[in-house]
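QA checklist item 7 of 12: single-chain prediction sanity check.
[x] sequence parsed
[x] length recorded as 105
[x] structure emitted
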Amino acid sequence: MSVKKTLGRVVKSTNMPDLTKNFSPEQLADAITAKRTGMKLTLVDVSEALSLSKPTLIKIEKGDINVKLVNILKVMEYLGLSFSIISDELIKNKSTIGVSDDDWY
C-alpha cells in the first residue's frame, strides 16, 4: 500500500506595484500581496503568525477600506513594509520651487 504525498499550495510571486504613483488602497493591497508572495508565505502562514483571520488578510490584500488600520499595520510590519507620511503641502512646495505662474499655459 503506497502513501500518496500531497504538497501544500505553491505561492506564486506577484509584482510590486509602482510605488512612485499616488497612494491608493489598491496600491497598498498590491504591495502587501507582492511582499507576502515574494517571501513565499501563504495567507494561512501570515494569518496564523499574526493571529488574524484569513478573511481579514484577504480583505487587506483586496484593498478593503473597512479593515482596521491596526491590522494593516501589523501585516506590514510582519512583512517588512512601512509607511512614509508626506504632507501634500510639502510636495506642492517642492514641485513649484523655481516655477512661476507665467510658465503655465
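[x] summary fact logged: The longest helix spans residues 25-38.
[ ] second reviewer sign-off
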